[in-house]
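Example record used in the benchmark description.
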Amino acid sequence: MALSLPRPHRVDVQIAVGSVLAGLAWWGLGLQMQADRLLGGTWALIPLFVLSGLELLRRSRPQFALVVGTLALVADQFTAGNLASAMMFTDIMYAAVVYGTPAAARRIPVTTGLITVAVTLGFLAWFREPEAILIGVVTGVVSFGPATTGVLVRNHREAADAARLRAEQTALLAEMDRVQAVTAERARMARELHDMVANHLSAIAIHSTAALSLDDPQTSKDALAVIRENSVEGLAEMRRLIGILRDSSDDREPAAAPTLDGLGALIGNARTNGLDVTLDDTRAPEDDKLPAPVELAAYRIVQESLTNALKHASPGRVTVALAQEPRALTVRVTSPYGDPSGPRAPGSGAGLVGMRERTELLGGTFESGPESSPDGKVWIVYATLPVDPADKEVTE
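Model output (structure tokens):
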């Protein structure tokens, strides 16, 4: 099977061709690096062409090029020598560190340093002349120097790659955070929109159905009054929400969020819509002020529970109970469970999902479903809202 060699890089081809031309010019001018060698000047062309061929493999086969290049440089010492051959060897040494394996990049500088020291001491002991140190200097220039330069370049490239990777990871994490923030904001606005408008629209749907179904002028008039009231209130809520969405300036006065102080008005509106609602608030006046997210969640849970009772509950009493525990606020809403006798509005299940999301965002627990009671079967909504958002175990 034929050996498949990779296509050399364009820069490597230019280095090889330029080195060969420079070496031929050096040889043609009769310049020699060494005198009185065993082989004549023409023999110096063999290492020259071998090293120029290895230049084509400096990126794809750096370690192979270094091993063969070292042998070619040793062979060049038995000829008159060529400066281009020595220069190409230094480039091959440099490329072996830059493009070689991490193990080779660590090993080559140490090896060339030891060789440089050994050659210097060996020739100094052999010649016993200070000029022998020059041989060690030349050895360091063509081996240890390029190797250490390659280490510096490789470390710089690896640091740049690491910095680029960190930048890409940071950008990716930022994009993920942005997507999560957008998703969370969309979910929050969906909950707010549903909780603010669904109650009014449900009342409008039920009373408009009653007005169309019953041929009674007084009933129709009462239904139209309720429809108008809920239409006006729903329109005001929509305008407030649209204002919040449009005005994103930082200096805007924050919109007032509903609190538990508004439960009285909420209960009154539910009674106007036809629900028989009672409020059992056992919180003492001296109880600590609840955090705004807790009050908002409790208000919205009561609001949505009343909307569901208006749409789905059987005739009977709806009870809203609030209790302040040492570390949590509990909300319990019960309504008669069964087939409603009057008109009803369709539901999508988004209300229960929104109540559960609000509770879980505060680290609380949420339960809903039918349950037996002395007064018959009832539908219960029960939420435990920790007063401290960091307290995740209060409901367990």
